Amino acid sequence: MSAPFGRRLTRVVSNDAVGAYRVVVAADPDGPPPRPGQFYMLAAEAGWGGGRDERPFLPRALSVLREGPDGLQFLLEDVGPGTARLCALQAGEALWLTGPLGNGFEPPADGRRAVLCGGGVGIAPLAIWQDALGSAATVLLGFRDAEHADGAALLYGSAVATDDGSVGHHGFVTEMLVAELDRDAHAVVYACGPPPMLEAVRELCLARAIPAQLALEAPMACGFGACYGCVVPAADGGYVRVCVDGPVLDAAALAGVA
């Protein structure tokens, strides 16, 4: 379903720590249900600005982690002033939401199995997609260290890699993906994470002619395709806007992940 026009004011239900991350739940009884892979633009009602004149921050684009009985769940990490404010939200505080926006994941075709590959906060859209796919999906997740790897508990049955080797495979999640596709290449890869990880997935799947859908993470100002601040190069020489053409895009249609 399409998002209703304009933003709407919701209330924070809870804000809980999961390792290095926060899971913020917002009640959204008037909004349409999201499709796996879609995103929302979030802004706190109060304290949403910085500097001497308290100029407002731009809304933050966040993939929905899942839709639960209490509302929409979002996975956050404090990486700057905007996300710091969102991470500090308390139950009962007001939160502006716009969404759900963009295009989500498409199910596997031709009898292919689903392989989910996520890095950091990029695990968020894979959680709601795993809920939709069921237990048959293979899940590979990569994190910086053990504290961040606690986020793997948000999905089930996942294999974990950490950069420092403190949990699971010592190395990149894409190394586990290579081994998984060596075992059985009749798959569709669904990936979300930092741009270097997504570029590695794109190149790997392109070289092996394996279909892949990438949920791109990009800074956004509007979420509606008006500002062209989130474009990435397309394989045909043009550009696509992550907010309206994505955030889920066919890897083969991209020239790279900026």
Give the tally of structural domains.
Answer: 2
Please identify, by name, the CATH architecture of the largest domain.
3-Layer(aba) Sandwich
Percentage beta strand: 25-35%
Fold-level CATH name of the largest domain? Rossmann fold
Mean pLDDT: 93
The H/E string reads EEEEEEEHEEHEHEEHEHEEEHE
Number of helices: 6
Pick out the low-confidence regions. Answer: none
Looking at this structure, what is the CATH superfamily of the largest domain?
A: Nucleotide-binding domain of ferredoxin-NADP reductase (FNR) module
Alpha-carbon distance between the termini?
Answer: 29 Å
The helix content, as a percent range, equals: 10-25%
* Rounded Rg: 18 Å
Strand order of the largest sheet: 12-11-10-9-13-14-17
Taking the sheet with the most strands, its summary is:
7 strands, mixed
CATH classification, class level of the largest domain: Alpha Beta
